[in-house]
Amino acid sequence: MSTAPGKSKPQKITSLADLKRVKADIEAQAQRAAALAAQQAVEAKLRMAQSNLFQAAVGAVKPLPEKRRAQLAPAPPLPIPKQQQRDEAAALVESLSDEVDVSSLLDTDDHLSFRRPGVGPDVAQKLRKGKWSIQKQIDLHGLRSDEAREVLGQFIRDAHKQGMRCVRVVHGKGLGSPGKTPVLKEKVHRWLVQKSEVVAFVQAPPAQGGAGALVVLLQPLRLG
């Protein structure tokens, strides 16, 4: 019966001397195995040290570009909406005061009206007669003063940018206010006078709101 390759033939133990010899062989094999393991550990540490030294010497690396791959330029940044930014900045800067005294700016005709310096009195007459048809309107009923001021300012800006010439502003007659004083009506007068887009305004005819509304003429839109 043959033995497997790499394995020594079993030794027959017939005496104490044979037993000591087998013990010595086993200890020698254990010492050789320990020495081999220690040598392998030292070699592994050496390889690791050499690898770290190489990486430290080379530093960070980048993959070479593949010749068959197209090098695309980065996407250009989105265009900046400059006009929108200007409009928003103008809206923030704009501040319509409630303290402006407009008594000297209003014409003391039958219903009070306003027109910019240099604008003839016939403009107010044409507004009352419906020379310009009303293209858009806003109703400020139920809004607090601060809300009404902001909403009215935005309404006038938008209407002017859309090229509209004549709009109606409904402010109410103030019958529901304390003391039935038309507080919002007077404030709307002040706010409109401060709007550069406004050329003139008159009290609306009875069929269009009478004392509770204004017909407002806007500056023509300048193109370019």
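Next protein, fold it too.
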Amino acid sequence: MTTQQIIRLGFTHADIRRIRSCCVRRLSRGVYSVRHVCAVEDHRRLWASIDEGTHSEFTEHGDIRDEIAELDAAVMARCEVRFQIQGQQERRAESDAAAGSTASIRTSSASPPPEVFSHITAALIHGLPIAYPVTHQVEVVRPGVNRRFKSIHVRGVTIPKHHRQEARGTEVTTLERTLIDVARTYNPDISISMLDNALRRGLTTREKILATLAQCLETRNTKRVRLALDLADARRESPAESIAAVRFFQHGFVGFVPQVEFDATSLRAKVRVDFCHRATRLIVEIDGIGKLYLGSGVPREELERERRREQWLRDQGWRVIRISWKELFKESKFEEIRRVLVGTK
């Protein structure tokens, strides 16, 4: 909701300040979201759509996913605001055209500067995964402007017209340009997980991304973009697996093949593993966000299936190393992997 929408429901500016400590979250200047249904009857007008089932409450996981969801909500809110502004501008333009050119010039000078959603913000709009929070700001491009505000990061990069598209009533960088911008700006953990996801879902190809890269006016960190493309692999199925692959590269590990499948006759099923190193008979399994370690509510039957699956691998002579989400950012597990790789050479 915008401030004006909340006021039209009968609230004052003072009310808005109070409800921010209860059931409303400020996403950016003049934009709010309802977090949950509260016990205050006077607030019903705010969360009526949740109570009626038209909208749903935020799902809180108690981990990094909550920060990403909050940024996503801020992005969607700004998209809505820009859509409303665009609609107002179009209506004014029609009115001004009928009234004469002087009014048209006045309206044009009062219009907010054009902006294009980019980087992590564009990735969220395109539905790409964010491995972990790297910014709390909505990211946009405006020609000739480089500024950071509390909730918005404005970049002055020039985006060619063919690197932009319309989405949610506003402009956003194309999927390929978004992947390139993220790879230029953020760690490979972030960019490669997006590339893996986009390639796996068939949203784009390496050839399209390279063609877009060749058209970019910006040349900063081009080597980082090419490295991210070289490391990307459509077989990887989650951001956690992508981060693990980046760690393998950073530690100099080679020979790990993602998503290898075994025919386990005794289990009457196929066993698929995250990473397989055949030369050392080593399996690496990644327990990512929401899989086992962060209270995702995995049923006991699923845990038992995992136990039987892992025991079958060990019975076949494979060594299994499991890496939790937190361990992806520590050295201990990768030193264990190094000892296995070196010890069998």
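About the second fold: The first strand starts at residue 24 and ends at 28.
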